[in-house]
Amino acid sequence: MVEYTFTKQIFAFLFPGSPRVNSILATFYISSIPNFILYFVPPDIKPSSLNSLVSFAVGGLLGDVFLHLLPHSFLGETFDDEVHFVQVDKQKNVVIGLAIFVGFTTFFVIDKLMRVANGGEGGHSHNHKEDIHNDNHDHKDSGSSTSFNSSNNDSTLRQRKSTIEKEITDEEPETRTPSNSIKLSAYLNLIADATHNFTDGLAMAASFYSSPSIGATTTVAVFFHEIPHEIGDYAILIQSGFTKRRAMLSQFITAIGAFLGTFTGIMIEEFSREHHETENLSLFATGNSSLPITEDLSSFNASGIWGTGVVLGDLVIPFTAGGFLYIATVGVIPELLEVTGKFIKDLRQASIEFLTMFIGVGMMAIIAWNE
């Protein structure tokens, strides 16, 4: 009870206003704080440390989806005294399910198009350090195999060895100069980041218009996802030739997408609310403000999408849930499945990732249990 009161006080302090104000505040929190953290992050952060942060973020995202967003989408909002209002409408559940699928597919389409535009390279990911190192190792290995397969003559071997060493020495400065493809990857990653931030803004608006608790928990989940997300983007910008200052500035610019998403979500929610209130007023004006007990309630408030009680604003939360599912399962978890081939090292890293993921889910479960 004390923990619940303390958590509630923190959320009340961070989000003291209306849904509109709280969604803007939440967007400011998730956009500014992770970017300020970048100032203290070294450009050469260890992949193992980044993976631990990523797995924690995955736990937070999946916990938010399965413990907050999906239950709210299908069951509705909890009122005072633990009273639930659930409208039994099979068609409504179909619409909600389709919205989840559309959210998942939208992120798939964006990811696919970004990969196509980038020439087949990976889309939006957190680990960006391996490509440059692998290119260098592949080049050196090919050079070594050429020298071994050339001739058995000692003088020829010595001559080729000196030639290869000279080539490697000459190519060392080139590894510090990013190629055009790497620069293109950096700019495409910034576009993907801005798009991703736009959907985060939509999630902020939709969650706070649903309920303060849903808004607070969604903010927590997105916040902990944004930290490794921003660090990963920061790493690829540094490796693409950006200075630290320019990389941080680029990350702040992409945060504009989050505010655009928030304002778009606010307009959708306000429009849906006004439309719903207008319909209720028309019912009172025509004398149909009450229905006989024997009348089929499924026909009441069925002027929404496809004749159901679902309005446009009700679809933002399930759309967000589908997007979060894609980010966590398709966009991030495949990176965590990669191993080095060293059993002890991989087992230790896997244990850390499992632990941090369970911590992320557990944190969201505690909040959901006490809300």
UniProtKB/TrEMBL annotation:
* This protein's record includes keyword Coiled coil: no
Q: Which GO terms describe its biological process?
A: intracellular zinc ion homeostasis
Keyword flag Ribonucleoprotein: no
Where is this chain compositionally biased, Basic and acidic residues type?
Answer: 128-142
Instruction: Output the Gene Ontology cellular-component terms.
Output: membrane
Give the compositionally biased regions (Low complexity). Answer: 143-156
Record field: transmembrane: 20-41, 53-74, 94-110, 247-268, 315-337, 349-369
Q: Which GO terms describe its molecular function?
A: zinc ion transmembrane transporter activity
* Places the protein is found: Membrane
Q: Where is this region: Disordered?
A: 121-179
Q: Which keywords does UniProt give here?
A: Membrane, Transmembrane, Transmembrane helix
The superkingdom listed in its UniProt entry is Eukaryota
Name of the protein in question: 10326_t:CDS:1
- Lineage, top ranks: Eukaryota, Fungi, Fungi incertae sedis, Mucoromycota, Glomeromycotina
